[in-house]
Amino acid sequence: MAAAAAAGQVIGLLKVRVVRGSNLAICDPLTHTSDPYVVLCYGSEKVKTSVQKKNPNPLWNEVLQLSVTNPTKPVKLEVFDEDKFTADDSMGVAEFNVTDIYDAAKLDLKHVSDGTRIKTIYPVGVNYLGAESHVSWKNGKVVQDITLKLKKVDSGLIVLQLEWAHVPGVTLYVDMECLLGLLKVRVVRGVNLSICDPLTHSSDPYIVLRLGTQKVKSSIKYHSINPEWNEELTLSITNMMLPVKIVSSSAFPITLLPSATSFFHQDLLSISV
């Protein structure tokens, strides 16, 4: 049986597909364009893409590889504009965590359906996300899609696709949060929901499910107090005693306090077949 990875040892390979950039900064005022390339730094490693000439919306679709030794250390990303005669100008910086894809890679997912979302990460002030990021199980691999919003610059997004590759002979340490199963919750509809907009006598409702640190949500149904979702949300079950909390809220800016309820997924065992 393979031993767990020691400190400082390579525990996995992170394949980073740099897909594209969008609305990047203009560095050449004469041509009103830029010659961008992306640099990734992780510890002492430094890898970069090719240069896309005269293109503020470049399409790279190139795979860069990093050796992961410490999953708590973020990957730093910087976009540069190539200049033949002076130092290359920075076109913005960002970073992303390895922990989300690493935590999923530790789980036994062999019996999970292809395309299942394991985790969703939301854009908040402390991260660089420009959109929701999803960790998924696809084609027998743990993958994650990331859209990064560049900082220290007026505009710019970078789209990445991550893939975790196991290192032969290395077994990842699996703590008490072993995956016991996946709970698929189909949000069918809402009936006679609260009216949060007194002007239109309606609401813009959406549903949020919380389980531990996980949070998944439905789409927003505008101007409806009897919404039809018929959407499937997935939660990873690691502790049968944690309740699933259901919060119904509205996207209306002056929404009333959201209503909430909860249920224990262990109760579903009695009706499973």
Mean pLDDT: 84
Number-wise, the strands total: 16
Low-confidence stretches: 252-259, 266-273
SS content category = mainly beta
CATH topology of the largest domain: Immunoglobulin-like
Q: What characteristics describe this protein?
A:
single chain, 273 residues, mainly beta, Immunoglobulin-like, 2 domains, 6-stranded antiparallel β-sheet, 4-stranded antiparallel β-sheet, 16 strands, 3% helix, flat, disordered C terminus
Describe this entry's structure for a reader.
Keywords: Calcium, GTPase activation, Lipid-binding, Membrane, Metal-binding. By secondary structure, the protein is mainly β. The protein has two domains: 12-166, C2 domain (Immunoglobulin-like, Sandwich), CATH 2.60.40; 181-271, C2 domain (Immunoglobulin-like, Sandwich), CATH 2.60.40.150. It contains one helix and 16 strands. The radius of gyration is 22 Å and the shape is flat. It starts with 11 loop residues before the first strand and ends in a 9-residue tail after the last strand.
